[in-house]
Amino acid sequence: MIKSVFGKTIKLFLIDGESNGRLTCELSNWTGKAYKIPRNKIKICSDRDDLKNPGIYLLFGKDESNKDLIYIGEAESVFKRLNQHLNQKDFWNKTIAFVSKDGNLNKAHIKYLENR
Q1: Does domain 10-115 have CATH number 1.10.10?
Q2: CA pair distance 51, 97, nearest whole angstrom
């Protein structure tokens, strides 16, 4: 049996025009959007309306012994929740968040994804 492989297009957008700043990633034929955001750029993400929607996020950082830590969370407003984490969790230095481009992600979906 011959298995055919189809290519995909990945679109990266450097929001701040620099590789170490905020960026978005979109995959062709996928209704989601991924964001990579450094901790020090969270507050200026109020310009990203889709981050005010439901989604899941991962906070990346180190513990006291320099071991990698990842916190996985979900929120009905990713932007609002990330701002709360600025005051509540100190270990992290960047986040990756996943939201829907078409508003088709609801609370049940994000709870499932967070659990998986």
Answers
A1: no
A2: 8
H/E run at residue 108: helix 107-115
Q: Supply 103's token pair.
A: 């508003």
Kindly state the tokens that stand for 4. Answer: 């055919």
How is residue 30 annotated by DSSP?
-
* Gap between the Cα atoms of 15 and 36, Å rounded: 10
69, 92 contact by CB (below 8 A) = yes
Q: pTM to 2 decimals?
A: 0.85
pLDDT in tens, the chain (116 residues): 666 677 889 999 999 999 999 999 998 888 889 999 999 999 999 999 999 999 999 999 999 899 999 999 999 999 999 999 999 989 999 999 999 887 777 777 777 777 77
Beta strands in 28-104 (DSSP E): 32-38, 55-62, 68-75, 92-100
Q: Can you read off the two tokens belonging to residue 36? A: 């990579």
- DSSP 3-state of 59: strand
